[in-house]
Structures are given as structure tokens and as C-alpha cells.
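Dear colleague,

As promised, here are the two records you asked about, laid out in our usual form so they can be pasted straight into your sheet.

NAME FIELD: protein one
SEQUENCE, THEN STRUCTURE:
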Amino acid sequence: VRLVESGGGLVQPGGSLRLSCAASGFTFRNFAMSWYRQAPGKERERVAVISGLGGVTNYADSVKGRFTISRDNTNDRVYLQMNSLKPEDTAVYYCNKQGSWGQGTQVTVSS
């Protein structure tokens, strides 16, 4: 299993970012995929999850209405569209497949 995140960066409050995770080494469409994040000094928390075929999604209360998870089963990618970003969204964001993790991508929300 290999998961490679990209798309992080520095953005001002109220801005948007789109994270991408390229997956390989398994039958992508057969597995739910998740995005987690970990802020300094805090535990890693799940932000969003999407079912294998993309029909079911679930979000942490802190990001509902602002973040959208989606997936492309043709190209084995999962995305996290993040809008209306807040300073408290600052964290390293990780792509997850049942215990397998990517290296993470840093998101910093600051003016």
C-alpha cells in the first residue's frame, strides 16, 4: 500500500485548498478512504471518510459544511476540498486506508 498526499500549503483565513492523495498497491474501489489531521500537541483526528464507491460520506462536526471529500476510482485518488479555512484547521493532513498512512501534507491557515 502506498499513499501520497499533496496540495497542502499556507493560506489565509477564509481561503481554500484542495488536498489530493494518490493510492497504489491495492484495489482502490474496494476500500473506504479517510482524511485525518494532527495539530501540534493534539491527537490525530478523523476529518472525513468516503465509502468505496463514493456514495456515503461522513465528516467531523468541526468541518461539516466547509470540507468535501471525494474520490476518483478510475485514477485511484481521493480528495479533500477545504473551504472557509480557519486557523484551527492548521495541521498535518494524512490520507488513510485501514491503518495505512501517507507521509502527510502540512496545511497552515494564517494571516
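NAME FIELD: protein two
SEQUENCE, THEN STRUCTURE:
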Amino acid sequence: QVNLVESGGGLVHPGGSLRLSCAASGFSFRGYAIGWFRQAPGKEREGVSCESGSLGRTYYADSVKGRFTISRDTTKTTVSLQMSSLKSEDTAVYYCNAQRGDSNLWGQGIQVTVSA
């Protein structure tokens, strides 16, 4: 069975940093486009950052550009989202996503709360 497992969320003060990780279980991220999405209370899920599988191109939402960095490790089994200079508006449930062809996988989501 294939799935994604997120970790690294929690409570952080404004201006702080967190690193989210997403581990692939039962498969490798090789050839997959990977991405992070988030959903705040009362809002729709939005794309935060993604990286294409083959060309390695990255995308960041304007709201996180310059503060967040997406990466994948060389073993192709973990992807990460380094988040810095966090703001209260970054508070949300964050989801890892992996897509390749007809395969579209989602993690269970992990809470990130930015509060003083």
C-alpha cells in the first residue's frame, strides 16, 4: 500500500521556523511532481509550493515566496518544506501531494499553528 506521511508540524511563534517532512511509504518519489498545499479554517485548500518531477522547476505562492523552500532528498523517499519567518496567516493544515500520470497521492495533513 502506498501513502504519504507528514511530520514536523506544531506550534511556533511569529517569525519562527518549521520544517515539514513528507515520507513516501511503499514507493519512491522518483518521477513524481511533488507539492505542498494548505487549508486554513473556513478557507479553501491552496497550493503553497510544488516541484516538477523531471525538470526540477519550483513554484511558490506569492504569499510564501522568499520564506518557504521545497526540496526532496537524493534517496527520493522524502520531501520537505522549510518554512521561515512564519506569520499568523500561515496557520493551516498542511498537506503533502505527489502526482505522476493517473496517480495522485495525498498525505493525511499536519497542523501548523503560528501564534504568540
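A couple of things worth noting about protein two: The two ends are 40 Å apart (CA to CA). The longest strand covers residues 92-100.

Best,
R.
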